[in-house]
Amino acid sequence: MSPSSASSLPPSASSLQKNRPAIFLDRDGTLNVQVVREGKPYPPQSLAEFRLFEDVPAACRELAAAGYALVVATNQPDVGRGDQQQAVVEAMHERLRSLVPEITRVEVCYDPGRGEPSLRRKPEPGMLLDAARELNLDLTRSWMVGDRWRDIDCGRRAGVRTVFIDFGYAEELRAAPDFTVKSFREAAGIILAHPDCRNLNPGTTFST
Ligand SMILES: [Mg+2]
Q1: What residues pack around ion ligand 1 (CB closer than 5 A)?
Q2: From the CA of 24, how far away is ligand 1's center (Å)?
Q3: CATH number at residue 116
Q4: Could you tell me the residue range of the domain that residue 104 belongs to?
Q5: 121: Cα within 13 Å, side-chain hemisphere
């Protein structure tokens, strides 16, 4: 069989099974410590303020060892609004990837969130779908972890299971998450305890 005919064949069931599941990770308030003012979370403003939650590197190592691609998906609208420099955000992501080398990919949306919405800005699922296409991810076995309604709605729209880290912000969820936890460590524990998340009933909410 020539290489060209092989490449034109549809993927077989066995090759599809080799597609990796992913854990899509929000950034601020999920991996790194957010700044909370009057009940609302904000991103760190400088590289000096960028600090991971203590349990994140070890939990990410465990999740990667379990076979998950780790894909960060973050809205950074301050760049699009002119309130933050893109270079500062990129330096944060370089720091993040040096502290958590298991991270496979970082998807960023700089859309300011005004006017015509970007299909990549959460709650739209574009960042997840783009990464899934690039990395051949199996969305039916994948998860989204985040601390705000946009993360949960985004995960639902991409068809993945969702884990909500609840910090008690002064804002309401919209779609119901599959699980609600209080820390990234707990989120990782939930995912590791459900290696075949296809068996979960969609929309069922569990709390630890
Ligand atoms: Mg967040």
Answers
A1: 26, 28-29, 147
A2: 12
A3: 3.40.50.1000
A4: 18-207
A5: 14
